[in-house]
Description:
Order of helices and strands: EEHEEHHEEHEEHHEHEHHHH
Structural class: alpha/beta
Shape: globular
Distance between the termini: 25 Å
Largest sheet: 6 strands, mixed
Number of strands: 10
Amino acid sequence: MEFRNIKLELKEGVCLIAIDRPKSLNALNLETLKEIDQALEEVKENVEVKVVIITGAGEKAFVAGADISEMKDMNPLKAKEFAEFGQKAFRKIELMKKPVIAAVNGYALGGGCELAMACDIRIASHNAKFGQPEVGLGIIPGFGGTQRLPRIVGMSKAKELIYTGDMIDAEEALRMGLVSKVVDQEKLLEEAHNIAKKIMSKGTIAVGLAKEAINMGMNVDIETGMSYESKAFALCFATEDQKEGMAAFLEKRAPKFVDK
Length: 260
């Protein structure tokens, strides 16, 4: 598929997806969402890709939100379809077994914040700004913000941010657990790649099963979550990576994982 609004780069097992609409601060229109959806589908099926990094082109914005110029004349049916498509696209990030890192540069507002929250790990540059400002437009978050933000920062803080539409800076996002690390702008992608390389040095199947177990456990009671964890734990023992990893540990050497 030819992409007009995003850029893909695959290097040494890491696929970089950059939202590239600089004139609109990388805002998400339907065409861009479709390209993201298609790119994620291709990445999911590509055995060469071990880790995905999502970022925004340029230094001003990760994604400044959904494209208001496209949204303003939507009727309720079109708005529902738009929200559901965005939800489906972002859900692919959670459902794929490959880890996805958001490298947040600049504004991550509305749909941009929702895109970042769908990722497994979020790191931010010092100039990053986060927020769900939709109520100021007379709407609410539609790409999962009302569901993911409370799960990440807690219900009270999520309600405050969504009800007021306030923006927060990278340091505040770090304090509340919305991001896990804040770095200088020029080191953002380098740090994202460093994390990706560290992940890729581990067992691929184990990382994928860990992601599934964590995501599953967030949406069920703890007994159901632990039951899933024990089954995923047991499944690891059917892999060559488990045998290699434990042998390497006992032999005091670096493991050479082979499972895909």
